[in-house]
Amino acid sequence: MSCPTYSIDERAAMEMGANDLVEPAFMVENISESKLRELRMEQNFPLAVLGGIVAGIIGAVLWGIITVATNFQIGYMAIAIGAGVGFTIRFLGKGVDQSFGYAGGAIALLSCVLGNFLSILGFVANQEELNYIETLIYFDYSYTFILMQETFEIIDLLFYGIAAYEGYKFSFRQLTKEEVI
User: Fold this and answer.
1) In the 8-state DSSP scheme, what is residue 18?
2) What is the mean pLDDT of residues 31-39?
3) How far apart are CA 24 and CA 159, in angstroms?
4) On the CB side of 68, how many CA atoms lie within 13 Å of its CA?
5) Rounded to an integer, what distance in angstroms lies between the CA atom of residue 19 and that of residue 36?
6) pTM (2 decimals)?
7) Cα pseudo-dihedral 52, 53, 58, 60, rounded to 10
């Protein structure tokens, strides 16, 4: 069946086709050398890393707050951190080089570990009836690895892996068909 009054809006079809995301930037083999040079000129790795670190710290702090408030470690926070770090790096860095993905994955992973550590500090602060700043100051950091080992669960590896993967994958610029040509 077809509608007798249907007609294609050519302008809208062209706009939709030009804006379709075709591939992430880390798949650069289909991009012409001149276009790749042009895309690399738009990259900003230092800003991307700085933004990723800020996003990771914010995510880690939120992880700590939510874990202490609920008295339950929510592994999905790792997924949120990975996505947050990756998308921040993508937005600020406009990266097409592998270094953006590596930075995103590493920052996401370290942010998850920091989130777990901040959760521990929150529980210590509550136990000792100290505020969080006092706990940061007076905490004996030689116990960090022991406490991290004691609170570690095997499922953490899954969520850390997902966060690192998202941090890597989402850190690359998404290219449209127009940009690939």
Assistant:
1) H
2) 81
3) 23
4) 20
5) 18
6) 0.81
7) 110
